[in-house]
Amino acid sequence: MSIDELKAALPDYAKDTRLNLSSITTTSSLTGRQLWGTVLASALATRSGLVIAAISEEAAARLPAEAFTAAKAAASIMAMNNVYYRAVHLIGDETYATLPARLRMTVLGDPGVDKADFELWCLAVSAINGCGRCLESHERVLRGSGLPREHIQEALRVAAVINATAMTLDAEAALLTA
């Protein structure tokens, strides 16, 4: 399955999602690597088998192997970090923020690709996973590296559209079996 097939599979009530899915992959101001790494990391964060299969196929054709692997690493590390740091934040006792996390996170220091690209992918995954603390941290690093707010916003838009696509298609599949 391809992104075009994902678009075609979206029901009429999700026309906005279909149009947004088309535009995020064709009118981006992100570099190709930034865009497709964000699309892939976002797809993985949705946990939707259908969306992951379709997007990973296209991303593999558009990303060098090291970027494809790094986007997968971003989704994996943020799946762990988003749970931990969101929980620490939501507990409301700042003492937890001063304690060492004691979670292995070496990929953040050496992701195998440009650090700003990796941070962008981590930001998109954090948006899908709803971790405010991680969003703040990655946005700060990205702004410090010179990435304009418009590019950061674009990564957030990609995450939102990929997430909406996954939710809609998974919901439709569940409704068919209900």
TrEMBL record:
Enzyme Commission designation: 1.11.1.28
EC top class, as a word: oxidoreductase
Disulfide bonds: C131-C134
Carboxymuconolactone decarboxylase-like domain residues: 97-175
Catalytic residues of the enzyme: C131 (proton donor), C134 (cysteine sulfenic acid (-soh) intermediate)
Catalytic activity: N(6)-[(R)-dihydrolipoyl]-L-lysyl-[lipoyl-carrier protein] + a hydroperoxide = N(6)-[(R)-lipoyl]-L-lysyl-[lipoyl-carrier protein] + an alcohol + H2O
Family statement: Belongs to the AhpD family.
Subunit structure: Homotrimer.
Protein name per the record: Alkyl hydroperoxide reductase AhpD
Organism of provenance: Nonomuraea guangzhouensis
Name of the gene encoding the protein in the UniProt record: ahpD
